[in-house]
Amino acid sequence: MLANKLNIRVIVPDRPGLGHSEFQPGRRIGDWPADVVVLANQLTLGRFAVLGYSGGGPYAAACALKIPERLTRVGIVSGTAPFDEPGLSDGIDPASLGFMQLARTKPRVSRLTLRLMGLMARFAPRQIVKGAMAALPAPDQEMLTQPEFQDGFIEMIREALRAGPRGAQRDTALMVGPWDFRPHDIRSPVYLWHGELDRNAPAAMGRYVAAAIPNCRSCFYSSDGHLSLISKHLEEILKVLIA
């Protein structure tokens, strides 16, 4: 395993309402750092690096703002940006964007849709993969043709919906809504990696975050999308975070 090769400990906590984590009514993105501190204290961790991928990017940014004294480094990979900023979501596949926006505009419909997705992940997983591929660029489609990657993709959906659709709906609603903090106020260094071909979190989102955070060191990959970037470059990303 890569973690063994690099001699690092990887801890991947579920956000509230996802996986085994309890739902938190009314939570905001900016509440996450407090949860991270509680977990770190329970694990007797002093300082540590934080990495946020995709919709986890805003949560890593919130940690950089609110608990810099506990962090060694902060990384954001293919992270989303505030969807209310003009033009940033234009590059997302229209069907995918509509699905995500339901979580904010029509939460009940969103939860029903997510429940159906959970059933498909259990009984017709290859249909989910086929549907996902239609909205992805070639580098990401190539990743999803690999059986092992397909299995991980389906398991991610199943785990997110383990306790039902409420947590995933709330998490998505927060992702497509305005942030409850300003990335411009972050003073800690942040490392950012983003694919130019990304259709889940378009490159415009990466450029926005890179410009908004005063001390952001960014790297954009011309031939990578949302899935291919972290799959191909994870080792170099982790090496930066543990340097």
Strand content: 5-15%
Under CATH, the topology of the largest domain can be stated as Rossmann fold
Mean pLDDT: 96
Number of helices: 11
Low-confidence region ranges:
none
Instruction: Report the CATH superfamily of the largest domain.
Output: Alpha/Beta hydrolase fold, catalytic domain
The oligomeric status of these chains comes to single chain
Order of helices and strands: HHEHEHHHHHHEHEH
Structural class: alpha/beta
- Please state the second-level CATH architecture of the largest domain: 3-Layer(aba) Sandwich
Query: What spatial order of strands do you see in the largest sheet?
Result: 1-2-3-4
Shape: globular
**Number of E-type strands:** 4
Question: Which terms summarize this structure?
Answer:
alpha/beta; Rossmann fold; globular
Architecture overview:
The protein has 243 residues and is an alpha/beta fold. The protein folds into 2 domains: 152 residues, Alpha/Beta hydrolase fold, catalytic domain (Rossmann fold, 3-Layer(aba) Sandwich), CATH 3.40.50; 80 residues, no CATH class. Helix content is 51%, strand content 10%. It has a 4-stranded parallel sheet with strand order 1-2-3-4, with helices on both faces. Strand 3, helix 10 and strand 4 form a beta-alpha-beta unit. It is globular. The two termini are 19 Å apart. The model has no long low-confidence stretch (mean pLDDT 96).
